[in-house]
Amino acid sequence: MAKLWQKEYSLDSLMEDFTVSNDYILDQDLVISDVLASIAHARGLNKIKILSDNELNDLEKGLKQIIELKENDNFPITKENEDCHTAIESYLTDKFGDVGKKIHTGRSRNDQVQTALRIWMREFSVKLTLETAKLGKILLDFSETYKNIPMPGRTHMQIAMPSSVGLWASSFAEEFLDEAKRVENFIDILDQSPLGSAASYGVPLALDRAYTAEQMGFKKVQKNVLYSNNSRGKFEAMLLDLCDYIALTCSKLAQDLILFTLPEFGYFSLPKELCTGSSIMPQKKNPDGLELARSRSSVVSSTAFRVKSIIRSLPSGYNRDFQDTKEPLLVGTKATWSLVAIMAKMTEKVEVHEENLVKACVSDLYATDEVLERVKKGENFRDTYKSVGLNLDDVKTYDPYQTIKNRSSIGTTNNLCIDENNEYAKSVINESLNKMTQLKSAYKNLCEKEIEVVNI
Fold first, then answer.
1. 293 and 167 in one domain?
2. Burial 299-322, CB ≥16 within 10 A → b, else e
3. Where in the sequence is the domain holding 186, given as residue range(s)?
4. CATH number at residue 147
5. Do 427 and 346 lie in a common domain?
6. Which of 105, 130, 163 delimits the end of a domain?
7. Chain centroid, CA 38 distance in Å
8. Is residue 401 part of a domain?
């Protein structure tokens, strides 16, 4: 099939390479979401009598066939197609002739791309919320298991104050849960349909945008058609920013695990199946997964910045620049997904060495405790602080287990609020599962089978 924008001339081959780039490869991820949107669009055209019932049946049949082909990895998209949208229309035209040529009525490739991306991002966000909350739950379970094991707290990487393995783990648990909740909240922004906005200004057809939005399981229509266009790239950047925060937390967790599994620390260790080796040093078991987690977090950061840089100075209305936001979106979201998965596996399998942790609780760790013990007996804080600081050799080593029990205010070692955080995790997880069930129901209404659009 000719290009969707075909003219009376052939495009220069260099210009074709430049304008198409790798879009046709990236679009393999969007075939299913585009098909679902196309079914909804065809039903909308049928509703306003642009398509007959028979034409609608043919188009739905063909679109469902494309889903089957895609699921069997048998739906090729070529550079000549430019993207999945042309490939889909070409398939329908080859199968059903002129009927296939009607599917694009009232639709620009712009709102077609927008809608496919919106469906993909919406499901990805639901799944990322779920997996990030599950990672938080893994860390809460870890915290519960090891809540009574002492651990030196550090500031500036130096011995600071008494802490516990439970406090360390639950700090990351709460952080991941908050980040999962932020993604969950963002789904309300994503969950609006741009279909029917065309190339930014709508069309002179009585498209029922609310009807097609409902067909695709969207909560509402993105009303202003120009805003629908102008949100392209913006919504991608917002999602990537959320991914970036998750990636930053993964990086910090990875850095801690790298440090604390060093033989010089010996607080934790990783099972050998999560370590790699050296090509020259036979003794090495390297935490390469954790090191790459640090690196991959910067990949996510770069994609968020890249999208914002592309859209920063664009005027209103569609501009081809938007095409270049697709790659960073897919790269950044997939990198985040891998980060969450690998950190979940790493955390589940960390081994804790209690003896080494207790041994690391040296007397300097209790300098502040010593000051506060004297304050409780009536001394003033500032003079006592100076006295202890000038006589650190006299600070005794406290019972590390008792120091955990001595801290009982909210969020400290003897009051980690794990039960409350478990309820928090449960609510986020359940909300995500419910949302995924709603999406699957909408998909089944469109294609009569259980299906997911995000497979990474």
1. yes
2. bbbbbbbbbbebbeeeeeebbeeb
3. 110-208+217-358+417-447
4. 1.20.200.10
5. yes
6. 105
7. 26
8. no
Segment (H or E) for 155: strand 150-155
Residues 230 and 283 in one domain: yes
Same domain, 20 and 75: yes
Stated length of the chain: 456
- Count Cβ atoms below 10 Å from residue 98 Cβ, excluding itself: 8
> Same domain, yes or no, for 321 and 382?
no
C-alpha of 278 from chain center: 32
Q: Which sign, positive or negative, has the C-alpha torsion 272, 277, 283, 287?
A: negative
How many domains does one find in the chain?
3
> Among the residues of 153-276, which ranges form H helices?
165-190, 209-215, 225-230, 234-260
Spell out, as residue ranges, where the chain has pLDDT lower than 50.
Answer: 1
Q: 149 and 25 in one domain? A: no
pLDDT at 20: 65
Q: How would you label 250-276 residue by residue, b for 16+ Cβ within 10 Å and e otherwise?
A: bbbbbebbbebbeeebebbbbeeebbe
Judge contact between 454 and 124, C-beta under 8 A. yes
Q: Would you give the end-to-end CA distance of the chain in angstroms?
A: 30
Q: What single-letter amino acid sits at 341? A: A
Per-residue pLDDT, 244: 98
237 and 346 inside one domain: yes
Q: Are 325 and 310 in contact (CB under 8 A)?
A: yes
| The predicted structure's pLDDT at residue 18 | 67
Number of Cβ within a 10 Å radius of residue 329: 26
What tokens appear for 220 in the block?
Answer: 């509402």
CB atoms near residue 114 (< 10 Å):
24
b/e for 62-86, b at 16 or more Cβ within 10 A?
bbbebbeebeeeebebeeebbbbbb
For the stretch 266-302, pLDDT in tens is 999 998 887 787 778 877 788 889 999 999 999 999 9
**Considering the entire predicted model, what is its pTM?**
0.93
pLDDT for position 234: 96
The Cβ of residue 371 has, within 10 Å, a number of other Cβ atoms equal to 21
| Residue 266 near residue 272, CB atoms below 8 Å | no
> For residues 369 and 95, what is the distance between their CA atoms, to the nearest angstrom?
79
Please say which residue of 105, 130, 149 terminates a domain: 105
Contact 287, 257 (CB under 8 A): yes
